[in-house]
Automatic annotation (TrEMBL):
GO BP annotation list: DNA damage response
Domain of life, source organism: Bacteria
Pfam short name (any one): SIMPL
Protein name per the record: SIMPL domain-containing protein
Alphabetized PANTHER family for the sequence: PERIPLASMIC IMMUNOGENIC PROTEIN, SLR1258 PROTEIN
Length: 215
């Protein structure tokens, strides 16, 4: 976003500029989606086996010290499975899917959580995301940088035009809100012992549009 224009009307002269800011932050929260997928010819058997696996996963997570309020079901579904032969649909069985979202406030536990859940019956890890527990703090820093950027652009343009810029903007419009979890991966896999997980860093951005007057 690099909009920079100078507008003149009957009452005032205005410079319109954009401003951008970005702050790098170390994540301190992991969001892990994992669970069990069970396929059986009998629906009752599929449900029973799936429920047993998820119960075992939950108990293992609680034993790691994950609070119950940090674990929630995000998907539960039952699907009929078919095979196709010579254009004919043949019943194969049922698939039961139960996915849990685990919020870990200690990101160094991420690999342990994945490994422990897999050992207790989890056969899918469909997503790991890293986030900040207080992203608004970093966003406000990025927003401040965006405003400073807009002022610098306006001052540069005013100097090039040979006019005097009024340093206080007439109006500032927030254009974006860049606080989103950073995805580590989205895939189904079976974890190996001591799965290494690298959280990296978050890039939190902000953008504004500002209107300055000049004379």
């Amino acid at each position: 976003m690099n909009t920079t224009t100078a507008l003149t009307d009957s009452s005032r002269k205005i410079i319109e500029v954009s401003g951008e800011g970005m702050v790098a932050a170390a994540p301190d929260r992991a969001l892990i989606t994992l669970g069990a997928i069970t396929e059986k010819v009998s629906l009752s058997e599929a449900q029973t086996e799936n429920a047993a696996a998820v119960s075992s996963i939950l108990q293992s997570l609680f034993q790691l010290g994950i609070p119950k309020e940090k674990v929630q079901t995000v998907q539960y579904g039952i699907e009929i499975q078919y095979n196709y032969k010579d254009g004919v649909q043949l019943f194969r069985g049922y698939k039961v899917t139960h996915l849990l979202r685990v919020t870990a406030d200690k990101i160094e536990q991420t690999g342990v959580i994945v490994d422990t859940a897999v050992r207790q019956g989890a056969n899918t890890v469909s997503g790991i995301q890293f986030a900040s527990a207080h992203p608004e703090t970093y966003y406000h820093q990025a927003l401040t940088m965006a405003v400073h950027s807009s002022r610098h652009k306006a001052a540069t343009l005013a100097k090039a035009m040979g006019v005097a810029l009024h340093p206080t903007p007439l109006r500032i419009q927030e254009m974006s809100h860049g606080i989103e979890p950073h995805p580590y991966q989205i895939a189904t896999f079976a974890a190996a012992p001591s799965t290494p997980i690298q959280p990296g860093e978050l890039n939190i951005s902000a953008a504004v549009k500002a209107f300055y007057s000049y004379s």
